[in-house]
Amino acid sequence: MKKIRIHGRAEFGGCVEAEALVSPIPLQGFTSVSPMRGYSTERNHPLFKVPYTGKVLVYPSPRGSGGFAAFGVGPMKPAAFIHTKNSPLSVLCAIAAHVPSMTDFEMDPMEFIETGDMVLVNADEGYIEITKKSNEASTSPEENG
Amino acid sequence: MVNLTDDEKRMLQGEDGVIPQVCMQYLVEMCQVAGAEKLVDLDGTGDMHTPGISLSQHYSFTFEDLKALAESGAQFKVPTFANKAPFGELTPVHGWQHCHMRSYGGQYHDDPEFHKKAMHEEYYTLYRKMGMMTTFSCANYLTMSFLPSIGQHCTWFESSQIPYCNATLGARTNIDGSFATCLLGKAPYYGMHITENRYATVLVKTERLIQTDLEWDVFGFAVGEDVGVDVPVLLGTAKPTTTQFQKLNSAIHTGGGVSMYHIPGSTPEAPSLEWALGGKKPIRETIIGDKELKNAYEKLNYHTSDVVDMVYLGCPHLNVVDMMRLARKLEGKKCAVPLWIMTAPWLYETAKNLGYVKVYEEAGAHLMSGTCPAAMGGVPEGVKNLAVDTAKQAYYITGCYPDDDNKLQVCYGSTDDCIDAALSGRWRGEWK
User: Fold this and answer.
1) N or C: which end of chain B has fewer CB within 10 A?
2) What span, in angstroms and rounded, lies between the C-alpha atoms of B79 and B400?
3) List A32, A34, A40, A65, catalytic entry
């Protein structure tokens, strides 16, 4: 099984491996997320009502209100966060969640991770490791296996 | 690694008391998450959501601690303003008697007992003693009467106010206004506090001159969706009015996460395009042309029916000129459906003194202050199609109805389209 490793910066530490849920477009908080239900409530969003609980939530960047932090609130929160670009919104989310959160990668993780892939988020050592759900090879910066 | 001064280390060790210690712990963690190497001493103003004893899920103190702190004579280190009506009920400060609708907690906003409790006066007595000015508005820059100047380091929180502080005023803030930053007068030094990060990296061009209120609102949303969290420089626009800055700032931080932008010749850090870009070439150029504007307009509209049964104006809260224009247009008319108008609490009395409240009431409309439908929990029962004139409210309001698959319909257009809908009960707005 091919594994792809990408180095990045830890926002919040910890190490966890879980299935990825990828949002192809930015995520938005405030009324556009329901932390009680554990899914996005944003109209016309590809992740509308798709549960993120226990998943590695992967997204390109945050947008909207400071209520973005709600993605990191409560028992329904994701297992970890991975995002290409950060902002004070992702900072607030990481502070609320206290689960592994990473950004500022050497290569854009959005180009390598698909929903359903297993992703090890090792924020303590500053890398993620992707195990593709299929054996299709991706162009990878570092392949172990 | 966060470098702290001796004073900051002392606070972290608890030598200044429990609340400064918790606040410092929270700020150190924020530095670590944001990659900030130090705290910056603030010389601007603070804007925070209130009330509360939690800084986050993991850092809090007790109400008794807060009371003891206030009674000891402690003061917020920077001029500090309360943003929006008190959380979590976010009930209107004025005009709540007209709001027969459920809050997020299920109680009715027009219940006097609920209103009294929802104003959380027990906290504000203490906060005011510590120097807080309870403006209670998402557009509290309208009533602060004490704005930060160019280059001053601030700590604000409301998303629509972040670009107002950075781009419109030229002061500097991230989204971090909190009890901790305002009390200690310190914030993590990263992002918009650093000159280098404030230069534009994306050059945005237009095909039409952006000049009406609606064009600014749609344009802001479309730019936000295009540039995400980057800093754009906007070319091909007229000079925005105060209302248009309000619309641009709220829309650009709804469609995207834009904390800073430049309009050469209009915003203080962009006397020219070259200044806006910091003497460098943009990393990317993009066009928000007629096609992109139309797409954004259509995205913000979310309706199959043209039968409107409620109209909301006041996102962000209306300034006095907006209220004057609205009064002149409603004078002698009668609304066919409920029309809610929202302003900042400190402008409510002004509107009353100028005779606008009377004009609105005679037309069947209501002036309120301090909040908005999305913050209050949605719209009154039975409302199926809401008309609004701002991208932010148009986009967030449907999120209040997740169990109904976002079935609330939204008609989005100009203020005149909304007034027409209030008077006729029909939506006739279209993109031109």
Assistant:
1) N
2) 34
3) A65
Residues of B in Cβ contact (< 8 Å) with A63: 224, 228-229, 253-257
* CB–CB contact A41 B157 (8 Å): no
User: B361 lies in which domain range?
Assistant: 301-424
Fold classified for A3-131:
Glucose Oxidase; domain 1 (3.50.30)
* Nearest by CB: A96 against B56, B158, B176: B56
Determine the distance in angstroms separating the CA of B158 from the nearest CA of chain A, rounded to an integer: 7
Same domain, B209 and B240: yes
The shortest CB-CB distance from A63 to any of B257, B397, B402 is to: B257
Examine the domain organization and report whether B259 and B308 are in the same domain.
Answer: no
B309 in any annotated domain: yes
Clarify whether residues B401 and B307 are in a common domain.
yes
Q: Is A65 a catalytic residue?
A: yes
Residue A62: its H or E element: strand A62-63
The answer to the question of residue B335 being in a domain is yes
Which of B35, B157, B374 faces A31 most closely, judged by CB atoms? Answer: B374
**Each residue's pLDDT tens digit in chain B (432 positions)?**
899 999 999 999 999 999 999 999 999 999 999 999 999 999 999 999 999 999 998 999 999 999 999 999 999 999 999 999 999 999 999 999 999 999 999 999 999 999 999 999 999 999 999 999 999 999 999 999 999 999 999 999 999 999 999 999 999 999 999 999 999 999 999 999 999 999 999 999 999 999 999 999 999 999 999 999 999 999 999 999 999 999 999 999 999 999 999 999 999 999 999 999 999 999 999 999 999 999 999 999 999 999 999 999 999 999 999 999 999 999 999 999 999 999 999 999 999 999 999 999 999 999 999 999 999 999 999 999 999 999 999 999 999 998 777 789 999 999 999 999 999 999 999 999
Please check whether residues B19 and B161 belong to one and the same domain: yes
Residue B101 located in a structural domain? no
- Same domain, yes or no: B389 and B368: yes
B353: Cβ contacts below 8 Å, ≥ 6 apart: none
In 3D, which of B422, B206, B216, B202 has the Cα closest to residue B330? B422
Q: Which of B266, B298, B330 is the last residue of a domain?
A: B298
In a shared domain, residues B264 and B317: no
Intra-chain end-to-end CA distance of chain A, in Å: 6
Q: Which residues of B touch A99 (CB under 8 A)?
A: none
Q: If interface means Cβ-Cβ distance under 8 Å, which residues of chain B face chain A?
A: 26, 29-30, 33-35, 49, 56-58, 157-159, 174-176, 191, 224, 228-230, 253-257, 259, 299, 302, 374, 395-400, 402, 406
Contacts A26 to B, Cβ<8 Å: 228, 256-257
- Based on the fold, state whether residues B54 and B164 are members of the same structural domain: yes
Q: Tokens representing B314?
A: 């006041």
